[in-house]
């Protein structure tokens, strides 16, 4: 089965996208509360100025949107951690759009940005119980590392680190 992704554009957010970012980020946190290090309650309490800052680039993290027919259907972010590694965060696709390749486009965009910025390694954290996400990352070259940590929004849940290394 081929998937037509010609109508899906992946682009960085700008300050003017703050309402779009807020809407999709809150939708993600409601849909998959155990997948993110941020709680819905915390994000819902952000002010307009905080959302504007999150949407404008030059701050960490930076977000990308998948736009289909003028509507945001996916979100992903990246940030640089103190170890100077590119960290993939906030990956989410609207349930109505899953299985169409949108998630793969978002992951590929983060990998491309990492390489363009001089990083040869991208890391992320995922619950191994989240088989759909873990399988997506594996298909895109990520491998599990023997590193675990509690999820910030749910300290009782442990997530495992995965990494992708750019080829030579």
Word description of this protein:
- The protein is of the alpha+beta class.
- The protein has one domain (8-165): Gcn5-related N-acetyltransferase (GNAT) (Aminopeptidase).
- The chain is built from five helices and seven strands; from the N terminus they run E-H-H-H-E-E-E-H-E-H-E-E.
- A seven-stranded mixed sheet has the order 1-2-3-4-5-7-6, with helices on both faces.
- A hairpin with a 2-residue loop joins strand 2 and strand 3.
- Helix 1 crosses helix 3 (48-55).
Concise account of the structure shown:
By secondary structure, the chain is an alpha+beta fold.
Map the helices and strands.
Blueprint: E1 8-12, H1 18-31, H2 40-44, H3 48-55, E2 62-68, E3 71-80, E4 86-93, H4 102-116, E5 121-126, H5 131-139, E6 143-151, E7 154-165
Parallel strand pairs: 4-5
Antiparallel strand pairs: 1-2, 2-3, 3-4, 5-7, 6-7
Helix pairs in contact: 1-3
